[in-house]
Amino acid sequence: MSITLIVPTVFRRHTDDQNEVHLEAGTVKEALDLLVARYPDVGRSIYSSAGRLRNFINVYVNEEDVRYADGEETRLEDGDRVLLVPAVAGGSLEEQPFSPESFARYSRHLIIPEVGVEGQRRLRDAKVLIVGAGGLGTPAATYLAAAGVGKIGLVDFDRVERSNLHRQVLYSEADIGRPKVQVAKRRLESVNPLITIDPLEVRLDSSNALEVVSQYDVVVDGTDNFPTRYLVNDACVLLHRPNVYASIFRFEGQASVFCAKDGPCYRCLYPEPPPAGVVPSCAEGGVLGVLPGIMGAVQASQVVNIILGKGTPLIGRLLLFDSLHSTFETLRLRKAPECPACGENPTIRGLIDYEAFCGVEPGATEFDISPDELKRKLDSGERLVLLDVREPFEYEICHLPGAKLIPLGELRARVNQLDTSDEIVVNCLSGVRSTQGAALLTEVGFRKVRNLAGGLRAWANDVDPTLQIY
Amino acid sequence: MGLRITERALADSMSHAEDVYPEECCGLLAARGGHVVGAIRVVNSHAGPKEDRYYIDPLVLGEEDRALASRGLGVAGIYHSHPDSPAAPSRFDLDRSFPWYLYVIISVVNGRAVVARAWKTGEGGDAPEEMEILVEAP
């Protein structure tokens, strides 16, 4: 194959003042061998004393990095242009020497050829942002902290609740009511005192996301809602940060790496969010406790791959795990040329209002009735029909006195069991399904429909703490 | 041993350092016959915070290098800035240095480029040696 090998101009003195060398070679390795045979001084520059291509020398074939093809075995075709070019980097940040304690702590990493001291140093110098210190974020943070990622930012404004504990194993009974990120910082720094945890007790939104994300090299998406997921995606696209994504529902998890160079982003896969309330959250639909442990650990392993620059991260692939049927699958994902965030003509050039984009209107809607208002109406003897749209097994755990049960999935078929002249207050556990139920009733002609805002959880919180909440 | 550089090339690199402060700037030293005659700005492509790290996309370097070659010039070295840090190579700079390039480091303090110093390193970043900067007209 007749190919052209282009060397940096700084080598011209070794190559008879040529920076383009024409060769006959079938692979990258053959081309380099011929170059070195012809110009031994170039060989001394680009090969280490061990005879391997020096670190930080990149080889491209027609602008594609051979590391993402078959390395030095990458095959060449007639007319290919092979570019030999250094990856120049530096910076003022002084590297700290490795302490004896580090050698002991990371010894099982140091003896893996793909990690070694150089890889461990990369982990130490890396800054990883984890959005959400919940089911996904806490296992990801635990393994990344233990692995020696030097700086981990944890974003969450929630406090530990008892219902977190079946899956968020970083927290314990004694932590209930305390801010998650503060508890997590203490626990993670005791797992590994050589690293730093930045507790970011804020709600990530369009006003602060770019500033927060820009401080880190890689982002882990451990969010449980669509507005934040799109926000994290768009911030990562705008700032060129890899977005290590996972999501979970009941027994199924998925994971991918978005926003990597040349890879798709979350919007390539899901250009638009589902209508508000259609896809239930874990709080609404439930999740197997062990599942986020697995998916969060998958995210941690992706972060490690990315930091080390080794292996094949889930760029352009979606990993699906089904814990009920014990299967792992991967699907190919394509970068969408028409993607509004990362496509050829992006329309998203800054962060937007993600609550509005996802159809989640903050604050009360005209449908909504607060637990306090409902309590006043009931106490004053107003005639109301309480409609519970959860499943029967949920109704068994708790319900409002006298509530009529019609699961949301059966509501359309059973609307004739309701009377349009009644004032109906729809409820569920957290207010998501009941919002849909109330909308459905309105759609079919009911006019006096209200939705119990925040569901039974809010009722238990504001009115009746004895209600058995789950 | 000295680094011969035109007054304009040096001034351009220093104003680049001020323009992107508090981030690090980076660029190429374009030379002809052993004299640096231009400072070519390159985007700092470091994936993380750029206040204390820089990275030059190899494809960008390759492209600039070929463009210079077509004009009879070449890349003799690299310049970058150290915001609020001394103009001396860090261990990271040395570990990532190539013995065939000259390195100019510009110290920027509170947004003002205060000093530029030139360095050359041995194999593996060993034995960094400071080079005198010899400013030439224009």
Characterise this structure.
In chain A, the strands form three sheets. Chain A has an eight-stranded mixed sheet, with helices on both faces. Chain A has three domains: 2-86, Beta-grasp domain (Ubiquitin-like (UB roll), Roll), CATH 3.10.20; 126-357, Rossmann fold (3-Layer(aba) Sandwich); 368-462, 3-Layer(aba) Sandwich (Oxidized Rhodanese, domain 1), CATH 3.40.250. The longest helix of chain A is centred in the middle third of the chain and has 19 residues, at 290-308. In chain A, helix 1 (28-38) packs across helix 2 (40-46), helix 6 (137-147) packs parallel to helix 7 (180-191) and helix 6 (137-147) packs across helix 12. Chain A is built from 18 helices and 19 strands. Chain A has 470 residues and is α/β, with parallel strands linked by helices. Chain A has helices at 28-38, 40-46, 100-105, 107-110, 116-125, 137-147, 180-191, 209-213, 226-239, 266-269, 282-285, 290-308, 354-357, 371-379, 392-397, 408-411, 432-443, 455-462; strands at residues 2-6, 20-24, 57-61, 64-65, 81-86, 88-90, 127-131, 151-155, 196-200, 218-221, 243-249, 252-258, 317-322, 327-332, 368-369, 385-388, 404-405, 424-427, 449-452. The radius of gyration of chain A is 28 Å and the shape is elongated. Chain B is an alpha/beta fold and 138 residues long. Chain B has one domain: Cytidine Deaminase, domain 2, CATH 3.40.140. In chain B, 23% of the residues lie in helices and 42% in strands. Chain B is built from three helices and eight strands. Chain A binds chain B through residues 6, 8-12, 19, 45, 56, 58, 60, 63, 83, 85-95, 126-127, 214-217, 240-242, and chain B through 24, 26, 46-49, 52-56, 58-59, 61-62, 65-66, 68-69, 73-76, 78, 80, 82-83, 85, 89-93, 95-101, 103.
